[in-house]
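Subject: sequence -> structure tokens, single chain

Hey, anyone have a minute? Need the predicted structure for the following. Not urgent.
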Amino acid sequence: MSIDLPFIWVGLIAFAVLAYVLLDGFDLGIGILFPFLADREERHLAMNTIAPVWDGNETWLVLGGGGLFAVFPLAYAIVMPALYPLIIAMLLGLIFRGVAFEFVHRTRRMQGFWELGFWGGSLVAAIAQGMALGALVQGIAVEGRAYAGGSWDWLTPFSALTALALVVGYALLGATWLILKTEGATLARARRFAMPLGVALIALIGAVSLATPFLRPEYLERWFGWPSGAWSAVVPILLALAVWQLWTGLRHQEDHRRPFLATVAIFILSYAGLGVSFYPNLVPPALTIAEAAAPTSSLLFLLVGAALLIPMILAYTAYSYWVFRGKVGPADGYH
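Reply:
Had a minute. Here:
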């Protein structure tokens, strides 16, 4: 019985990217919501809810990007030239956000500047990620084994729509995280944010979902053909259940966990929908997982390292969240 190493690796990289989106998503969401919080004290309280974990969350981005380079070098060589401006913007946003996070508590004279930097860096990173996602879903022009498109192929109405959806989604993750981690006026404000953000996110997911099948014939076949459409229908059904859980969680004032868990479920199911559209391609429309993979010997060698590394990352991530579990109050601080 042969082992499908490229399939195993695409699963590991997909997991790393999903872990990054979920874990760093609420970090970025806190930054996006930053200007809308009541005052400086509340903004700093929101930062303290993520202070113990925010930098560790970005480990998954390194793992996903590094894994793509090592395991699917052809895909990396095609995707990077297509998305260079967005990747650079994302990295600059994340760097500036990280610097702002550290400096905002260590200065008085420029505290407003660094608060603005925390918001701006979070927003720029989220927009860049959303536009990169939209550009990838649309498909990347490939000729031979190289990118054949233009410098601005990533800038389209569809990529702008996916960017807006991701920004709203991250903001909802941030709001529901504050519901989970805070009390009193901050919790009440986060709950008021979450309701309209949830409605907006569902509308945007609906718009993206309706547009995606008509971008490429293979997408249309996977979602509406037979019998593939019957299996694909599981995703929107489960998504509807997750939306219902979000709604009921927000309606019940004493329920602080369900809104966040339901939002996480919405992200996971949306991500599964992308998998339905993409498979078996790694880079739409024509570069398959098998074609993009490195030689078998390289995949096997790297898999040994991943088998040791990924459990370690999961263990220290879980331990960090366990140690810093519970509500965070104004008197608590990690800086």
